[in-house]
Amino acid sequence: MTIMAHRSLPLNTNGIATDLHETLAEGWSLAEDVRGLARHGVEVSVTVDPTTITAVLTVDPAAVAVLPALLREIDNARLDETRAGAPVVLGSVCQGTVTIRLKIPVGLVPSQVAALLPTPAAAKEDR
Q1: Residue 121: which pLDDT band, with cuts at 50, 70 and 90?
Q2: Which helix (H) or strand (E) holds 102?
Q3: Which of 2, 6, 20, 73 has its CA 20 to 30 A from that of 56?
Q4: What is the pTM of this model?
Q5: Rounded to whole angstroms, how far apart are CA atoms 48 and 50?
Q6: Integer Cα distance of 28 and 50 in angstroms
Q7: Strands 98-103 and 53-59, how do they pair?
Q8: Residue 116's pLDDT band (cuts 50, 70, 90)
Q9: Do 108 and 64 contact (CB within 8 A), yes or no?
Q10: DSSP states along 34-96
Q11: What does each C-alpha distance from 99 to 16, 32, 53, 59, 110 come to in angstroms?
Q12: Coil vs helix vs strand at 15
């Protein structure tokens, strides 16, 4: 086995500053969309790291009417539960590039949520 010395790429401070500026500009646009969802009772938290993008959606109990529309947008949606036993829907969007965790409002039982999940055949028909 050959062990090669690690070499860092030279830092391009102008490039990093440009990337930061562009990222923050996109962030402002995203923030407005997130605020819009919050006005409808859906809290969104997005985490981006070098290998994954995860969005956690929390639906306010008063906004339960938005669940069917949200669930239709999630690919491969499946009902699961958190370590604490709370129901959560897992899936993805954007052709699998973003993982979704949809926290179910307190008071809904898993069978009610499962009834809202699209069947695989119905999901294919919608596309």
Answers
A1: very low
A2: strand 98-103
A3: 20
A4: 0.72
A5: 7
A6: 21
A7: parallel
A8: confident
A9: yes
A10: HHHHHHTTEEEEEEE-SS-EEEEEEE-GGGGGGHHHHHHH-EEEEEEE-TTS-EEEEEEETTT
A11: 27, 21, 6, 17, 20
A12: helix
